[in-house]
Amino acid sequence: MDRSARRAARHEDSLSTWRAAVILAAILAAYSNSLKGPFVLDDQASVVQNGDIRDLGRLDRVLQPQPASPVAGRPLVNLSFALDYAIGGLDVTGYHAVNVAWHVACAWLLFAVVRRTLELPRVRPRVAAPPADVALAATLLWAVHPLTSEVVDYITQRTESMMAFFALLTLYAALRAHDAPRRRWTALAVLACLAGTVCKETIAVAPLLVVLHDRVFVFESWREAVRTRGQLYLGLGASWLVLAGLVNSGPRAAVSGSDAGVPVWTYLLNQAVVIVDYLRLTAWPSNLVVFYGWPEMLSLGDVLPQAVVVVALLALTGVALVKAPYVGYLGAWVFLTLAPTSSFVPIATEVGAERRMYLPLMALAVLAAVAAQALAARLPGPGGRRRRRRRPDLHRGHRHGRALPPARGRPPRRHALSRPPRAVRAQESHARHPRHAVVRWRAGGTSGMLSPARREALCPACVLLGT
After folding, report:
1. How many Å apart are CA 394 and CA 407, to the nearest integer?
2. 400: left (phi over 0), alpha (psi -120 to 50) or beta
């Protein structure tokens, strides 16, 4: 790496550092008043009455929580409670501080995932604003949104934030594995997915998110994706075997699944109402509650308006995956991450819970941030003139028959999209030749794009680009 590249890397690191500091400051400001909140609801069974966390040296008990408890089948979460107890006993401040720390870690990973996705060659030309700024806006919107407050303030719901952390880490490591010469990022993605299986069952969607992300943002076909990343996909799929073993052991059979006592159809009808309510709270987060109650006996007629809305949104997501795949991926993220808790698997103890929007809300925040920057790019700029969409310098162009040097601190970039080469813009320059123009090219265009008469009209004093 030469000196200019190292300087550019240090500059980029400094920008990432202050953005990470902004995210941290926003979360601390939002949740600084939550550190003294008491143990509530399931916290009594998870922490106060949980004898398995009293002795950290008895890992056999720590890693095998009691069946039907809130941490049953989630040994890594129980281990985190045991560490909290070893440090501060039943002092609630330490438990809340760790919950906030997990939320901060999730926010940093979300920022990294969004930024790297927007910087991919197929995506970058479509984004007018700097990717880091869009990622920061989306992360801040998600991190301080009231819908995430239950996961942070409710100690037991650390299960959700820990699972989300490992899901995001899986996706981030899979992203880094694209350009890493070694397989360490691939290994990290698989290990993170496996770690998520012992936090919460919702991690089951992580492999699907990675595969769909590859197909939408990186590869041109499913065949190319499988051929290039087959080993990663197999490793991520192995997490389903671990998860199946945990589920079949029956630690939560009385709470969810076919033995929970709630018919699948009844639960599905209830979810139509709940999902629409989630979307309302996303746009206007008022009247938040911590306990939604149990599933009710409903008929299709009782929930027909909500069912139509959900089915329509699901259909729009399917169409968007074909017509506008970048937007479609965000919609698919919402439905995939809601599927384990808000579809065909009944959960008898709660018909709904706002914490279930912890992962889906990320996609909605990104969609809002991207839409806002796209709208801002279309608004009139100073003087009433519409802002031009900024495009990256894909080619510096030519002047006086010789190539211009690349911008200092970065190598020239080639356009990744398969589009016909064409001139993008001609700019007047040079005081000695007012009509002289520098032509910027995309994808290595040739001088054949301009006729000799046009070239002469652009610069009568010299011949641009030769013949």
Report:
1. 10
2. left
298 Rama class: left (phi>0) / alpha (psi -120 to 50) / beta: beta
Residue 70 · residue 188 · CB < 8 Å: no
Radius of gyration of the chain from Cα atoms? 26
Pairing state between β 423-428 and 402-403: unpaired
Sign of CA dihedral 326, 327, 330, 331: negative
User: What digits encode the pLDDT tens for the residues 174-184?
Assistant: 999 987 767 88
Burial 338-364 (b: 16+ CB within 10 A, else e): bbbbbeebbbbbbbbbbbbbbbbbbbb
In Å, how far are 127, 194, 205, 278, 349 from 142, measured between CA atoms? 20, 25, 20, 14, 27
- Its pTM stands at 0.78
pLDDT digits (tens, 9 = 90+) for 236-250: 999 999 888 887 776
Q: Are 202 and 242 in contact (CB under 8 A)?
A: no
